[in-house]
Amino acid sequence: MIFKIIILAASLVISSKSIQIQTSSIGTLYRWRQIDFDFPTPQHREQAIRNGEFNQINVIPLGIERWRNRVFVSTPRWKKGVPATLSALPVIARTESPLLAPFPNWDWHNAGNCTGFTSIFRMSIDHCGIMWALDSGQVEAFETPRQLCPPTLYAINLQTDTVIGRFPIPSEFVLQNSLITNLIVDSRDAQCRDLHVYIADAWRFGLIVFRSSDAAFWRFSHYTFYPEPLLSNYTLHGLNYQWSDGLFGMSLGKYHNGDRPLFYHAMSASREFVVKTSVIRDPSRVNNAVDEFKLLSESRGPMGQVSASAVDRNGVMFFNLISLDSIGCWDTRDEYKVDNLDIVACNNVTMIFPNDLRIDHEVPQIVWVITNRLPMYQFNLINPNDYNYRVMYMDPVSAVRNTVCQPI
């Protein structure tokens, strides 16, 4: 099943021809050769270019989220010349390559003294319409890194487009060379009062937990958060590179009998793990719960690195296979083994490096994916004449039809 697809996809990666495979389940809402912004006036844009605040080739979309009639995209300040780090777009496309509208407004992206956004990586929206945005506080990570502000969790009310909370992560939970890069919201009740946010540190192999009721943080590590050495070597479309990213992707299973599972994996790895959220939500328990973190059976194989993942209302997990230009699936009620994994979308042109993946709260749900050729961006190999960045979408029900992931 997945091994056949891995062999096929691997042959596509090394092929000199532009062979394309794509299922009908996935579509493209937006695509860009380079990212541009909706500046207040053309004069503001020209001034930003002249003073180095805007350099198109250095802007990359990273995170994706959707709430009602808007899609939100993050553009971290990994290189010089990124004027805004979080933007909103309409969910109904009016143009193929729209200008990004800074969200909530330009003021939040120009503020100093850590009173505004510095460099937002990813966002997670709870079912009450609050966006939880993870700001690294660091700029120019791919050039000469500068930590301008502490990593911070922001809460933004999407009904009023106002920032309602700012929660710097305490310094004792941010280690030297931490890369705090991904988050997921766990909310249990209708009013989102019993809410926790789980935050991954990919480089120092830790999980940070935030409890909204009293704004408390805690952190812990586990050996399952580490990368696999042989999976830290990547080859993508002829580019060979090494990343040693640990804990990265996280997704929540169904709530049942007062608990729910957290599925997770390191990015430079081929295995999936699970822990009950009751374990990590209890700071007095988690450090004595080493045996509660469980391996989910089989490996995904030698090119099985996964970035983001998410579980839909039917209990199906979707995950980005970043070395295979693909999106995979697994019905979480089945055993995690090769025969129960499948591919729902694959394209070696439009889906080069599917980076972020989220599933919205709408009825019916939609899967949202950002593809962004991140390795090429990191090594300054982006061709500005190609379409490099895409916001893609997928109906999860039709995507798994006639696959092993289709719920029975």
What does this structure look like?
By secondary structure, the protein is mainly beta. The protein contains six helices and 28 strands. The chain has helices at residues 2-14, 42-50, 107-110, 277-280, 374-378, 396-399; strands at residues 26-32, 64-67, 70-74, 86-90, 101-102, 120-125, 130-135, 138-139, 146-147, 152-157, 162-168, 180-187, 195-201, 206-211, 216-221, 233-236, 239-242, 247-252, 261-266, 273-276, 294-295, 306-311, 316-321, 326-331, 341-346, 354-359, 367-371, 389-394. The chain has a four-stranded antiparallel sheet. A four-stranded antiparallel sheet has the order 2-3-4-5, with no helix packed on it. Strand 23 (316-321) and strand 24 form a beta hairpin. The radius of gyration is 20 Å and the shape is globular. The two termini are 18 Å apart. The model is unreliable at 1-23 (pLDDT under 50).
Q: How much strand content do the residues show?
A: 35-45%
Contiguous low-pLDDT stretches (5 residues minimum) are 1-23
Note the main sheet: 4 strands, antiparallel
Ends distance: 18 Å
Which secondary-structure class do the elements indicate?
mainly beta
Average pLDDT rating: 93
Assign a percent range to the helix content: under 10%
* Cα-based radius of gyration, to the nearest Å: 20 Å
